[in-house]
Structures are given as structure tokens and as C-alpha cells.
Amino acid sequence: MKIEIKESNENYNLYVKSVDGKQVFITIANQNKDQNILKTASLLYKKAYEILTKYNITVFHERFFGTSKYYHDVQKIRAEELKLNTQDKCFSYIEGSPYWGEGISGINIHGIILCDEEIKDVEFNGIVCGKLYKTDAVDYMLVHTVHGNKESDYYGQTYEMFQSMIQVLNKYDFQLKNVIRTWIYLDKILLQYDEFNKARTKVFLENGLWSDSVDVDKTEEIYMPASTGISCGNPHGLTVISDVLAIRTKNSEKFNFSSESGKDQKSAMRYGSAFSRAILLDDKTSRYVYLSGTASIDDSGNTVYLDDIGLQIDKTYSVIDALLDISSMKLNNMVEGTVFLKKAEYIDVFIEYCKRRNIELPALITVADVCRDNLLFEMDGTFAGGC
């Protein structure tokens, strides 16, 4: 059963997409710039609950993008509107304010329509922090808001975050090599990105994801998870948090996956960032592309079109188009995503670009620094299509 819903009004843009009737992606992008923020949160979660109950969807991964100071109020509203225990914190709250200023950007939900399978809670240190979904071909594990010690420095929090990731994975018989996707949110990316990369690389070396003896020209052959690394804070006072998706294949004839560097950009390992451009999944009935955060970078790793937001947007989409072509997909195969603008004033150029190309995507828009001060635009996303 293919599900595809689009609903737009003065309050929100709603997108619901599923290509296989099993995995469903719900994006609710706030459109009301003037409404009371807590009333907006209530309205968006009411709509989410309506969709979840109508299609009998169980939430697997949930991210809320909004101004951090509303976290506790939003948590209560979420529990009330989704009919949850008031202590339920199994979602990620990302400091992702909308382009008009303080408030809510929206909600991303990845859900599952269950038949004979079940989704179990993932617990770590006595807290429910994720979900485990098992099928006959593959097991999926999602963990929200993985982090390190708040008192540690930039390097320390990153290293500890990955150690926590490994511990919770191991508890459920997963390993770091099973990770296919991380969404990493750094509080002050321009200050901490170098230390973040050093710590991540050390963890990946220690856990055998790659070797520092590998020739640079062979980096495209190394498996790395897809990743977003962006400057979004959190309400917990941490310098870095991550959501992580891992898979454990049980039947390679029914399910396989691979990492991809694309056509227009080479491996980010060439300049010290340990992630792949995308992860491609194939379960023989449908295909998924988990696109890493993508920006205006050429195949040598250089930022191109300095100070030109329009050309940086165009370059980013060109890179994405070329990568998706490998899987015979296009932009309209997107099922969820996030657009990051370095400055709120860039919104008009972005909207005009999308109109000119007739692009309408199920993506939230927020304001955030990218990993380099000269990068003005970044987009990540998940794409899906039938085989």
C-alpha cells in the first residue's frame, strides 16, 4: 500500500509518504509565524496523532525542531496529544528555530505499520531512548539524543558520545559497524568541528571502520555511515548530541546496503570527515537513500560559489541529483529532510529557486551554521522508491 498525502493551510504543510506500506515518513512543517508557540505545538501534534492512529503507525524515530526554551512545555504537550506517559522523552528536541525567528520549525516522524512484527523499547541507563524493529530479513535500531558528559570539552563530549553509542548498540547485540546513519547536532560547529572530527576519527579507527594506512585514493572504497553534522543546539546544555540508526542484516538475499560517494563529490575522508555521502538500502521491493548533509563542495573538497547563496543552492541540488541518479531516483523521491540556511535572509532566494525548478519537498527549514563559515546552505534527507 503506497501512501502519499499532502495538506497545506495557513498553519502547516503536511507530507505523509510511504512506498511500501510499512515504513511511513511524516513531516509537519509549521507555517504560522504569529500563532502562540505552545498552541502551535499542540496543533502540530494533534495532526501527527490523527495520522498515526488513522494508519495504525508506531513511531520509530521522532525529531522536533524548535527554540530550546520551550522544551519542557513541548514535552508535556507532546505526551498529552500523542496519549503518552507524561515522562516519555523518547524523541529528540533540536534547537532549530524557523527563519522568521523564535518558534517552531516542525516535526519529522519515521513510523512503522506493523503486521506480525513488533517494535520494542531500547533502554540505556534506565531510560527509554530508542526503538528496536525486527523483520525476517533485517533488524533496525534507532537511538535518540546520544551524548557524553556535559562537563567535558568539545573533544571529550564527542568521544564520550560515540562510546555511549557503542555501549547501547552492544547491549542489543549491534556494533558500530552496523550504524548506517547518524544525525549529529553540534552546539557551536564553527568552534568545535575540528575537535569533533578528531574524536570521531579516533573512535572509528579504534573500532575497525577504517585504517589510517589506507591510501587516500582508496577512501571511496571504505564503508562509512551517512551523517549530518550541523550547528543546532539542544535544551540539555550539551555541546553535541546524535541520533543513530543501525541495521543488522539477517538475510542478504532479501536485504543489502552499501555506502556511496556519488558522482560530483568524492569521499569526505579525503579532508578528514569520516562519513559517506549516502547509504543505499535495497530490500528487493523498495530502495532507500539516506543522504548525508550536502552542501556546495566540489570533488576536491573545496567550497565553491563563495558568498553566492543562489549558486550554492544550485550546486547542492546538482550534487544531490547526480547521487540520486545512481539509484534511479530524483528529488521527488524525498520522503523527509531538513534544509539549513546560514542566514534567515536567504529564505527568499531559496523559495524562488524552488519555484523556478518546480521543487516542493517534504523538508523542514531552519537557520543554522554549516561546518564551514563560507557554506551558506545545506540539505539532508531520505529518499525512497520501488524496485
Would you kindly provide a written description of the structure presented here, covering whatever features stand out?
The chain starts with a strand and ends with a strand. Strand 8 and strand 9 (138-146) form a beta hairpin. The protein has six helices and 18 strands. The chain has a single domain (3-386), classed as 2-Layer Sandwich (60s Ribosomal Protein L30, Chain: A). A six-stranded mixed sheet has the order 1-2-3-6-4-5, with helices on one face. The protein is α+β, with helices and mostly antiparallel strands.
Biggest pleated sheet: 6 strands, mixed
Task: Compute the average pLDDT.
Answer: 94
Q: Can you tell me the CATH class? A: Alpha Beta
Cα-to-Cα separation, first versus last residue:
14 Å
Domain unit count = 1
- CATH homologous superfamily, by name? RutC-like
- CATH architecture label: 2-Layer Sandwich
